[in-house]
Predict the 3D structure of the following.
Amino acid sequence: MEIRPGILRAPDAVFAELPGYDFAAHYVDIPDPRLGALRMHYVDEGPRHAPIVLMLHGNPTWSYLYRHMIGPVVAAGYRVIAPDMIGFGKSDKPASRADYGFDRFVAWMRAFLETLDLNGLTLVCQDWGGPIGLRVVAEAPDRFAAILATNTLLQNCDPPPLGVPDWPGEAIAAWVETCRTSEDLPLGELIARACVERPADDVLAAYAAPFPDARYKKGMLEITCGIPLAEGAEGLNANRAAWRFLETWDRPFLTAFSDQDPATIAWEQVFQRRIPGAAGQPHARVRGAGHFVQEDQGPALAQILIAFLRANRTR
């Protein structure tokens, strides 16, 4: 439904009785200089004064992706905050593709942290949660204590990432072109193709729930077009600045990539080589998982995260 001109919001009814997702909904309005206030949804579970784990999803998912991880991490004594990016999940969705961009996704996420005044964060990031989250870390480092990266990357790092085959390559360029020229894509099937085991139909329907029709998918289509493939692309200089910062990051940085994700192959080695805080960490390989490691092996990734939190005294 259109809540005001140009801003869509999925009806509450589409989120009823989603399998495995019974978390209370929380909302905050964040400022946007062009669009006005936008309502952002987030899961917020666990003790109010416990150390916070910030779980950032990517495309085309939402906080539903983390449903297998939130409970175990909360049971271990931590507070979990899992927001839905603008354009995804229960958050507001600008109706025009022109309202989205790499830098705007970063600005929206930073505004979310600033509005809630979140600090002492351990960032968990996957897919687009990495480029967006790592940019926010570079811009607001005092809010973060540690980082766990899984199946993600930070595009066009400078110098070129040694060991990453033919980045960005034909496959990435073709995916960008598909999103650029499409008005709709079968969201559930995109999730299924990137998992080792095909999720149940009701789970795939839950991933698709925030997008009742093609009008709601502008963000999920446009975010892919934000991959900076050439000089002058939006976000490229900011990515390079983020890499310069990350090469000074000496707080804990752990990689926990899956064993069956061709989209991010070898990028864990880039992080491990270039980020000082990655030295000496017990970097993990999650077995039996594709790109959406949280869907394929969420409980296993949760245990890696809990061990990382405890080892680095973030509780």
